[in-house]
Design brief:
Rossmann fold; elongated; 2 domains; six-stranded mixed β-sheet; 14 strands; NAD(P)-binding protein
């Protein structure tokens, strides 16, 4: 591990205290003996925070999930994923140059790889257009060779459609309707950041059961439920009770790769740090095949 000062100042850009972003980092921080001070920055004070970041008095700015994808800043260099998805979840400074970085895609890649042995060449149903959905679609298209996508409400999915075609112009995109007959589809991956609604329940249940009853029982479906929950509405995972042929992935499961990737970006460059493990939750790790580090 590099020589970290005991006190690591980090800003969190948020409208309200984001407990999830802090909890996601606390265990990793404890494993490596770091003392981190999370300081709230309101979006209206972002320019002041960027200046502090440039001068080196803060290591990074973490972006609260409700704000990811809503920020438009000049004079920031974006990494490949942030550029493709038009969203980033952290900002760091490198010799005074600000970089917008998306580490969510690493968590998605890792979770998918851990969920099934055969993630490639899936037909994908996309419900939603938020930044986490875009990050997931980016991973599925770029790393897992998914080329057939079903989009609900193409008018509102233009940004997702454009991103898919930018990644591969030969991708096949089909409109999805909740009153369609799914029996002619072979959907084995669903990505959503929306709430489970009555009009979607019936058709999604049919899709789940179709995949579960597929003769190739070892080919499990992947359900990426990446939304923020705002109430006590039904969870998509409630549909999994009698659908053993699917693996459900939610945001907390993404942190085992995205959290260490975030800290690597701001100074932990000894990758042996990432084999540390928690007795309760298992290892923190990074996938070098994706990051290239």
């Amino acid at each position: 591990m590099t020589d970290f000062t005991q006190h690591v100042p980090v800003y969190v850009l948020e409208n309200d205290i984001d407990h999830c972003i802090r909890e996601g980092h606390f265990e990793f921080i404890a494993l490596h003996g770091l003392s981190v001070d999370f300081t709230t920055i309101h979006p209206s004070d972002i320019q002041q925070a960027l200046e502090v970041l440039r001068t080196g008095f803060a290591r990074a700015i973490f972006i609260s999930r409700p704000l990811v994808g809503s920020l438009h800043m000049d004079h920031i260099v974006y990494d490949a994923t942030a550029l493709a998805t038009k969203s980033f979840n952290m900002i760091k400074s490198n010799n005074g140059v600000l970089h917008g970085i998306n580490t969510d895609f690493l968590g998605i890649h890792s979770a998918v790889m851990s969920a099934v042995p055969d993630p490639k060449y899936r037909e994908v149903l996309v419900l939603g257009t938020g930044p986490m959905v875009k990050a997931a679609v980016y991973v599925l298209a770029k790393y897992f060779c998914c080329r057939k996508f079903y989009l609900k409400g193409l008018a509102s999915s233009d940004t997702v459609r454009e991103m898919i075609l930018d990644l591969d112009a030969n991708s096949h995109i089909t409109p999805f309707s909740s009153d369609a007959n799914p029996s002619r589809w072979t959907i084995s991956c669903i990505v959503t950041d929306t709430d489970l609604t009555t009009d979607c329940r019936a058709i999604i249940t049919k899709i789940l059961h179709l995949q579960s009853s597929h003769k190739y029982s070892d080919h499990r479906g992947i359900f990426l439920d990446l939304g923020l929950r705002s109430g006590v509405e039904d969870s998509w995972s409630s549909l999994a009770d009698d659908c053993s042929g699917w693996v459900f992935i939610n945001p907390p499961m993404l942190q085992w790769a995205s959290v260490p990737a975030t800290w690597e970006q701001i100074g932990i460059d000894n990758m042996s740090a990432f084999i540390c493990s928690s007795a309760e939750n298992g290892p923190w790790f990074i996938d070098r095949t994706v990051t290239g580090i």
